[in-house]
Amino acid sequence: MKVDLNKARTFVEVVDSGSITAAANRLLRTQQAISSQLQQLEAEVNLNLFDRQGPKIILTEDGERLFQQFKHHVLAMESAVQDLKSEKQHAGGVIRLGAWLEQAVSYLPEMIQKFKQLHPMVEFTLLLAEDAEIEQMLVDNRVDFGFQVYCQDKKLFKCEPVYRQPLLPVISRRFLTLHKAPACIEDTLDCPLLDYADEYSAYNMWIEKNSRELLPQARKKIRSVTISNNVVLKQLVLQGLGIGFLHQEAIQAELEVGELVPLFSHAGNRNIQVELDMVYKRKQVLSYVHQQFADFLRQQRDSWMV
Q1: CATH architecture of residue range(s) 5-89
Q2: Which residues is 95 bridged to in the sheet?
Q3: Helices 107-118, 288-300: crossing angle, 10 deg rounding
Q4: Is 93-163+277-300 a domain of CATH 3.40.50.10420?
Q5: CA distance 34 to 14
Q6: Strands 225-226 and 194-195
Q7: Tens digit of each residue's pLDDT (9 = 90 or more) over 62-81
């Protein structure tokens, strides 16, 4: 015979509370619902559990024996649930991340700090690389999650956007002591340029979005420095070496004090954006802490998707 666990818990609560009214208040249910469950329980076990002589709860001998058994099992189940919750709060393990250097110094530290407040026992291993290297590390199982700008093999990997920030064209105050500020987009063709490699060229994307007719000339433009590291690029721009495209959240302090100056910020030009994907194997079975981390990034992404 199977006993409904909900009815068994109600029975234990009524006896512990001393009355149907008190049990109904503790369980946030109506007295009628509680009485109905007790009657159904008696019918299911085919036993009289109560000596019904007035409002006071008096158990029969069968009711007392069943109460002791039920209470033991109900407490054991509730204890098991609490232990499981406690274990999950103190879940441990290692989460291995592959990321670009700029994300390792801007986006990820805050995400890791917030996640560790929820799961303090989790350890992180962070490997710095660029897209192709990160993808290979995922293939080789050297990292659990990658943070990539472009994922090549979307059949093997699942990609979910978790970060988006505008890339602002900026020059430095030092640059303006040596050069005249460009008055329009076409003038930037004659300015020294600090940019990423061709496939990641922020300048070409910006030109295409704002003055597409200039794109052939932009593609032929020689860069003063080609760099894949946004942190280093920022320092090059600050030294006055040319125009660069930098994440807004990474240069907010320099913009506020005037060390960096945005170009054409009031001319109606459209900014380009950099988007970062959380990447992991499609067929990968995530452990508890890995699943929690993925869910956490999904929950937090609105604050980073500008």
Answers
A1: Orthogonal Bundle (1.10)
A2: 124
A3: 120
A4: no
A5: 8
A6: parallel
A7: 988 988 888 888 888 877 77
